[in-house]
Design goal:
Layout (H helix, E strand, L loop, with lengths): L2 E9 L2 E7 L4 E5 L6 H13 L18 E7 L4 E6 L4 E5 L2 E3 L10 E4 L11 H15 L1 H20 L7 H41 L5 E6 L7 H10 L1 H7 L10 E6 L2 E2 H4 L2 H23 L4 E5 L7 H10 L5 E5 L6
Parallel strand pairs: 3-13, 8-12, 12-13
Antiparallel strand pairs: 1-2, 1-4, 4-5, 5-6, 6-7, 9-10, 10-11
Amino acid sequence: MIIKTISLTNFRNHSEYHLDCNKDTTLILGKNGCGKTSVLEAIYILTRGKSFRSVDSEIIKHDADFYRIEIEYYNGEKSTATFDGKNKTFIILDKKTHRLPKKNKYPIILFLPSDLNLIGGSPSRHRDYFDRLFGQVSEEYNNLISKYNKALHQRNELLKTENLSTSDLFPWNLLLTKYGVRIFTLRQEFTEKINQTLNQTYSSIAKNDDEITLHYKTEVKKDTENFYLNMLEQNFHKDLYLGHTNFGVHRDDFEFFFNNRLADGSASRGETRSIILALKFVEANLIYEKLHQKPIVLLDDVFSELDNARRKCLIKNFKDHQVIITSVEKVSL
């Protein structure tokens, strides 16, 4: 799918907005705060089903009671998304639905300035990033994360009640075990897949022999349900005291290692940017391998953070994709 036009109504600070897109690269120029990122957010909503920034109620323009997004593709198809303050509605090929169907989701490579700080940051930030990536290439993974988080929320709410016993938590322990073990297994598989090409891709950017690996850090030691369930039960008193669940895949982390040392603290600013660039290229290849679709690439004001060599590398590696770039200054493409 290649985007031809996008139109916004009451979306963020846009009362009305229209953009004509090229089949290869489109540049959106503007000062900070003018709503450039909002255009990428709208594209993401209509291709992935939800925002990468916030909930729908925060997206509606101030003093408006709805927002609307319409995208026309070069093949003549159109898609719209409307939120009326309570419900979101998608119209895809003249069919109305309240959730974007799996078959109508299209893969996206999203590159935000904050991604350049991915080497550091919190475990929750790392999980969110890789959950979004793994969820694009595996609908099973996406569903598991959703189900796991709902069960986790229910268990945590129960932990705040009085006179709680282990039997009260057992049904939720079973659900967290069922979903958690599978999430653990898939995270291992996807991390191994990324590492198959990450180092080689990094070397092609940095032009050196440094070694880069992504490590999946977890307290889950065995991919068995007995182990997982026993750990939840053993942590009962600790969970009860702290009021939340202290074991599970919701505590996992993803860490980059640079020459066998944590990249956070050992990789330079330039090396860090090369690692993230390599990750983005690996993402695109992984998505194409799994889904047989070339993702649309959304680059949000990242050119100001990259030197000329890395800018050229970015454009070269995504030359066969539709790329939409936001920038505060004109850039040579």
